[in-house]
Amino acid sequence: MEWFFVSPMMVAVLFCVSVAAAFIDSIAGGGGLLTVPALLAAGLSPAQALATNKLQSVGGSFSATLYFIRRGAINIAEQRLNIAMTFFGAMCGAIFIQHLQPNLLRQILPAFLIGIGLWFLLMPKLGENDRAARLKGLPYALIGGGCVGFYDGFLGPGAGSFYALAFVVLAGFNLAKATAHAKLLNFTSNFAGLVFFMFGGKVLWGLGLVMLLGAFCGARLGARLVLSRGQKLIRPMVVIVSMTMSLKLLWDSHGQAMIALLFH
């Protein structure tokens, strides 16, 4: 029945948007900046847009993760605990958001994203090479997996950047390795969120599967560049995406007030 809600032309546009979004997301995160507004513009309700976006995000993050695994950039056996904690955290976040309004988090999130962008911009050696890990095992899984997974299930914007930053700062990974592992945990939390939305009946499956195909293709292209270009590509992309997400969130929260201030 989804096809009655979205015209064929809009479906084609959303397919192209999902390709571009997944390409960006596989390198630096933030693909939802493109897909969620596009879904809302197509006439979906906010709940349908978020649910359908989770479906297409699963396709993109799975594509990138599969590529990284096949190229030996990820060892699944070493990430089992991180995967489990991420899945649990994301499910808790998706349930928790039904009972609390995330307004406070929306207000402070731009500051965190600006901080990530500045951190990578002002510390050019960050993530250049592997370093000794500050946290391992369960302590890392609880923070880098569970806490970020909870955030991804609860709100979501910038989760890929938070996963990557945790791998660089806490696990000591170089930036390319951190980005690859971030997609694994991003896929985990996306899948957990999708499971929750499936029970809510808000996923538009026809449209979502078309976008999933686009996301699969876009993410594969981005993942190739991560391994071939490394931090020379990832670092500027993280800075740009973090700043763009910050401005978008600030505009969503305070745009109307700013307009009113300018014209009074």
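Above is the first protein from milestone M3; the second protein from the same milestone is given next.
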Amino acid sequence: MRSLWAYRGFVWSSVMREFHGKYRESLFGAFWAVANPLAMILIYTLVMGQLMRPTLPGYEKTPFAFPIYLCAGVISWNFFSEVVSRLNGVFIDNGNLIKKSNFPRVCLPIIVVVSAFLNFAIVMAIYLVFLALIGHWPGLPLLAMLPLLLLQTCFAVGLGVLLGTLNVFFRDVGQLTGVVLQFWFWLTPIVYTLGALPEKARPIMQMNPMTPLVQNYQQIFLTQNWPTWAPLLNLLLISLGLLALAAWFFSARVGELVDEL
């Protein structure tokens, strides 16, 4: 923590440089940071909302039910996926910087997390504007998104740093992670509900640690209710275990990173 505080300027300038670098050569600049998530929400509302609406029991007559449900799941998943996938290659992608500069290596994962959170905040702000315009503001349960986001970040960071450190020594980890994330997305109730699955498949799907997290996001925004905290206990324990394991493995191997890179 002392190292991060001492290098806070380096972390923030790296995040801003990365953000501006995405749009530096484009004609409309940072407008695309808003246009892309806006297009996603419009597509889900205009197209998917009409095709998939009957799959939400009790909301057959609500025209925006499925877009709200789908966007809540996709936005939360995209944040998780971005953090894990980028942390998976963070040390390899910054190999030259690690070799040439002397700075706390832990800064690199923090830069990834802050950058992903910035992207998440932009998309979530547009989503909230959309909810306000259609008269479906979640109200006070929106505050519960903060502990959910913290839990999700801990889980993503623990998993991502562990995979990113392993990837330096075993490059197949990076390739495998991308494949697993694709399957993981479809094994999480984002574009469907658990009720749409056969009864025998539901207990298996509930073993997915992302299932209760995504369901609670959907509960906040669709039903406007507070999350159900009990199912998140397992995810909390997994997250703490991953963070401890990732911190131990990273600390044990950080001296070998330069040689492997």
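Note on the second protein: DSSP finds 13 helices and no strands in the chain.
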